[in-house]
Amino acid sequence: MSSSAAKQKAPIELSISRLIDAPPQKVFRAWTEPGLLAQWWGPHGMTTPECDMDLWVGGQFRTLMRAPDGAEYPTMGVFLEIVAPERLVFTDAFVPGWIPSGKPFMTAEVTFEEQHGKTLYTARAMHWSEEDRQAHEAMGFHDGWGQSLDRMVTLIEGLPD
């Protein structure tokens, strides 16, 4: 995929970006090691007691977030593209085995762009419909993904180089 196509904004997407004071390899590691992702995935107060990923195209990406009140939020999907340490793309449109999930909600693209030893981090959630985009925004996309990003940055600061 050309870089111009990758940067084109989808009409029904939400996104968040931040410059992180760490190299892309470190940020990519926080995203691709289940034990690390489980430590920061979800807004403040949430835990992720389950995180499984098979880091290959078609491999599963599964998490279970738990709220302080005990409510659980499972996700299941597959990786569509993995370019270490630059880009991850995953979707809930399929489950492992390329089986349609029944009710796709979004495809996510996460990029890790090197900028003078730091990482320009961008997470894009591209939805299947305007209704899904609005629902995700109403659920608190910017606040929730922003809090997750805060948690990830704190974790990365404590990781050895």
Automatic annotation (TrEMBL):
Report the sequence similarity comment from the record. Answer: Belongs to the AHA1 family.
Gene3D superfamilies xrefs = 3.30.530.20
**Mind telling me which residue stretches traverse the membrane in this protein?**
none
Domain of life of the organism encoding this protein: Bacteria
One Pfam short name: AHSA1
* Name of protein: Polyketide cyclase
Q: Which residues belong to any copy of the Activator of Hsp90 ATPase homologue 1/2-like C-terminal domain?
A: 21-156
Q: Which InterPro entries match?
A: ASHA1/2-like_C, START-like_dom_sf
